[in-house]
Amino acid sequence: MGFIRRLLLGDHEKLQDREFINQNDEPEYPSSTKLADNVNYLMHEFHNTNDLRIRILNKGNASLLYIESLVDQGKIHETIFRPLEFNEVDSIGEIPSAKHTLNLEESIRGLLKGHAIYMEDGRKTIAQFAVTSSFNRSTEEPQNEKVVRGSHDGFIENLMVNINLIRRRIQNRDLTIKYYKLGKKTNTNVALVFLDGVTDPELIQEIETRLNYISSDMIHSPGYVEEFIEDNTKSPFPQMLNTERPDRVVAAIMEGRVAIMTEGTPTTLIAPSTFFSFYQASDDYNMRWFTGTFVRLIRLTSFVIAIGLPAFYIAVVSFHFEVIPDELVIPVKQSINEIAYPPLIEALVMVVIIELIREAGIRLPQPIGQTIGIVGGLVIGDAVVRAGLVSNLMVIVVALTAIASFVVPSNELSTTLRFLTFPLIFLAGTLGFIGITFGFMMILIHLTRLESFGVPYLAPVAPLRFKDLKDTFIRVPIYMMNKRPRDSRAVQMEAIGPSREWKQIEKSSQSDEAGKSINQPDGGNNKTDK
Amino acid sequence: MKKGLMVIISLVLLTGCWDERQFKNVKLVLTMGFDKGEDGGITETVSIPTIKRSAEGGSEEKVQIISTEARTPLEARNNTDLMVSESFDPAKLRVLVIGEELAKDNIYSVLDEFYRNPTNNLNAHIAIARGSASEVLTYQNTSDTRISKYISGLLQGAVATTHATGENIQLICAELFEEGEDFSLPIIEVDEEKQLLRFGGMALFHDDSYTGMDITANESIVFMLLQGLKGKSARLTHKVSDQHENERYNHVTTNVLKLKNDIDIKPEGDTVSVEVNLALKVRVVEYPADHLQEKKTIDELNVTLSEEVTKDAEKIVAKMQEANSDIWGIGRQVKAYHPEVYKKLKWSETFPEIDITPKVKVEIVQHGIIY
Amino acid sequence: MKPASQSINQTAETIKPTNNTKEQKVSRRQFFYILVQTQIGVGILSLPNELHAVSRQDGWISLLVAGVVLPIVLLILWLIAKRYEDLTFFQINEKLFGKWGGRAFSLLYSCYFVSVGVLIVLLFGRMISLWVLPNTPFWVMAVCIVTVGVYLTNGGLLVLARFYTMVSLLLLLLITLSFYSLQEAHWMYLLPIGESGITKIILGAKEALLSFFGFFVSIVIFSRVEGSVKERFKTMLQAHFFVTFFYLLTLIISYTFFSTKEITFVPEPILYMLKSFELPFIARIDLFFISMWFVSVATSFTTYLYMAGQGLKEVFRLKTAKRANVFISLIIVASASLIGYDMTKMETFTKYVIQSGFIFTFYIPPFILIVALVRRRIQKERDEG
């Protein structure tokens, strides 16, 4: 009935394929009715590349083109030739799954995506078939962000798979994805993922603006995007969180942040990010909240240790040895008495050695990497002390510093911390404690001045917002994090409603039962079961 | 960027300038002694441990003891510096020993340097040496610990057993300056026969000099209790009867559990009278005569003990007054609570004259795990 | 590609002002901490001794007197600021004294702020040289504190406020450390109360007023603070009483730890007291204290730098105060280095700064208020006539 009505009313709108890239911007080149012209144009545009396969069909009246390295031969057979074989259609151009176009430029884009195109002499229409081959590794847990409990999958190099991982976790129509093609030559797909209605529209607009300003031939890693759009590039601190974990990205999106994903890399950028978000790990939310808080506090202390401990040690042994408590004076003196170099040099040498070991360990295959660790850590460490080049206290201090810097869940911040050790070491070597205070103050002021997409980097500590401290220094039970933090710029603050009302009900019913417990003997049992 | 580079370069170049004092290049002085020298000068004795680390990780320690004559402590330090390798630093001083003679003269002249220069350690124990400080410092102890550790350990032990106040250089400062308040310092003696150092009681000071009067080691517990101080334990032994043939049965040893002291100052016209009330709650820790289950025994003991301790206290008060050493700071209290009376008095002349009556009340509250 | 991005660019420009930190107001909590951090600074270490020199152990009463009297001045400042709610102090000057008169007035005030800045740098340098780094040249210390100041001020008032709020945690630490020392307190040393007599106590109160000079910042940034006029005044009072309490605490602690005689020898009692304490894991707490105190001094200094910079900005109609700040700090380093560690020069300088401090913070504000009242009356009469 509806069909007839529509027919009568003439309300028959033809739907068209949605294109996520604005068509008007793209160049156009109309196809010709001559097959040879079309083929020649394509050959010319592709500079006679050898992997462009041209299969001549229909005794030279038709041709099927595809880029050999991008397509799956099996799929070509499946989608194009099988319907012919089974006589489902008369000609390839009539296969229903084909997408038709009159624009040769569009077919070039199709070819580059891994489509096969079919052209016939005497017809302008070009049929495109999606026969892309994809080689995906499995969505394994990322090596650099492991967790003990929680989900164990990770992003891979395929954008579609990555978005799939997010969509599976947020089954909501508000989850919005915006595609961008960045890189004038590489045409890299970049996706902006956010939750409409929660994320601040101004924030999205801001990010879009910044993305649109990118004018670069190549976007090949998130590092590129990051440096193009971050607020302050003259800062050692990363202003966007990098992660390969879907659960982390989902959590960020649900807080109202925006995820920026790039084709060809598993790393996702999250904006805006604050200093404290680098200290949150997915594990925290799977632990008891007591332990979660404890671990958080340890991590945040590690910040101070990582950047300040060597400096503190240097300041103590070369400026203010009065602060060593009486009981420790002799042991410390014993350990450093006959070291040839001043503590500053000692510290620099050791810090550089640790960096060397680390850098050597990353690139080498795993079995050798372990050897490096043993040789570097144990053998050199021991020998250096025995040779009297470096005091054993300094080895302890530097090792502790390195360990503390690795505690940070984010790799970028960890590198930053180890880098910041150096200026503080020099300051401590020049002015002692005063130098350290000076250095820390400068770092703190820098952090206070930094902003990430309009959000103060040190939020919620500066500006202070007591309510949001619940997920920074401590982690309160999840049901108490009922409001989204201010630093995500979320427009919808409510995140969790009252979820433990059952407790009240249980309590009241229990007190009721206390009166008539004889009547309902299994009331108590229920409680113990839960 | 350029600015940052400049800053880094200058930092690197400036490193190690100005105030660097490398800990490894310092001769640590942990114990220091001062004696009266000739012509109003002083003799400074220092013990400097030198630590050598052997390749195996162990270490051996040599102690150097140096005495120098000079006019002032810092001049003496300069002289010492000329004799030791590297430089000499008392920033981690543990123990400061002052010879008896010098202390009788004046101790502030020696201490001024410690108060004035910021790197000095005001936490150091301070003690008076019976005889000379250099004797105490040069004493070769048989145990292998450092002399600083030996003396500070000795003094800490004395504090724990309620023999000494835990005075350090800073804590006596207030009493040194303040009118109507005096202090006492522990005495260290060398026992030649037994080859030991020994705590020898408390030296009573008036203003900034040693009066020559001591509270002996045995009396010092009651002396501390009268000041309201108690260490971890405070054991008093007193004779309580003559009935038993065996002398040891006549004694009781008690450990003070709780004390309450109260100094009651009453202005009487032009002078003041003072009542020192001390209430002790004690536990009997040694009493061979036994039978403490009977209330009568305990009551009797309470009475005799109270009398005995009061006697001790009276002796101590007499000593203090003779020495004119106002340990309680009665003068300061008079000044605080009765300023009009204080103005009329010349305190340092009044103190030996005033009436001080100690009243001690001992109460046995526990008797250990047997009666 | 290009035209599209341009159109977006325009929209971004329109969004910007809301994001711009410069235009945002500071919250009242931040206002509180700005006031507190500005006042608690270089003076706190020497305050007990200075008060003791005048009114002996009754110094704390002097402080209380000063603390009670000062709200009157606060009220005057508030009455001025209230009248011109959205003008900065320097703009108010222009409004009241005409274009050139107001500018000259603002310039004078800026000079005063600069001289206080110089004084802070001098006192800081001297303290560090006395206690921690005796051989380090003065200019190093001056450059240190000025660098911090410029870097912080150039971030704008909001960054200033955020930083102050954050470092106020240190005050808590200082208070805890101070309480630790109460175990050695001899309360008797405070007695007899009132020994020095009322005149001495009043004189001491005048001395104590010095340590509150920083409250002047309240009128300079008044227009940049959130909340109703009354609420802001309440915050001013709260901050004032907090500072009074903090000073009182330090005074009482130093007067009970040191005997009445002894404290006359000790210029910085709190430090001296901490020097003699030892915690099991760390000795010489004074070194840590002085390092933390550096932060307090830096914050006070920064406020004065900020005020001077704002003044110059207004006087010379600059777009931002950044250049002015750098210029001022160069002047400060130069003039402070001229005086350096020289005690006699410094004393003369201190005397001048204190005198001008009294003039600028206590005597002039009532005058401004009177001018404002008269102006308003004239305005009214003119309107009616």
UniProtKB/TrEMBL annotation, chain A:
Please classify the protein's predominant subcellular localization into one broad category: membrane
Biased segments, Basic and acidic residues type: 500-515
Where in or outside the cell is it found?
Answer: Cell membrane; Membrane
Report the membrane topology from the UniProt record. Answer: Multi-pass membrane protein
* Positions of the UniProt region annotated as Disordered: 495-530
What is this protein's name? Spore germination protein
Origin organism is Halobacillus locisalis
Q: Where is the signal peptide?
A: none
Q: Where are the transmembrane segments?
A: 297-319, 389-408, 420-445
What are the GO cellular component annotations? plasma membrane
Q: Where is the composition biased (Polar residues)?
A: 516-530
Transmembrane is among the record's keywords: yes
UniProt keyword terms in alphabetical order: Membrane, Transmembrane, Transmembrane helix
Query: Could you provide one GO biological process annotation from this protein's UniProt record?
Result: spore germination
According to its UniProt record, which protein family does this protein belong to? Answer: Belongs to the GerABKA family.
Keyword Acyltransferase belongs to the record: no
TrEMBL record, chain B:
All copies of domain Spore germination protein N-terminal, residue ranges: 19-190
Carries keyword ATP-binding?
no
Tell me the superkingdom of the source.
Bacteria
> Domain Spore germination GerAC-like C-terminal: where?
201-368
Q: What biological processes does GO assign it?
A: spore germination
Q: Which UniProt keywords apply?
A: Germination, Lipoprotein, Membrane, Palmitate, Signal
Q: How does it sit in the membrane?
A: Lipid-anchor
Q: Which GO terms describe its cellular component?
A: membrane
The entry's localization annotation reads:
Membrane
NCBIfam families in the record: spore_ger_x_C (TIGR02887)
- List, alphabetically, the PANTHER family matched: SPORE GERMINATION PROTEIN B3
Belongs to which family? Answer: Belongs to the GerABKC lipoprotein family.
**Protein name per UniProt:** Ger(X)C family spore germination protein
**Species this protein is from:** Halobacillus locisalis
- Give the source lineage, highest ranks first: Bacteria, Bacillati, Bacillota, Bacilli, Bacillales
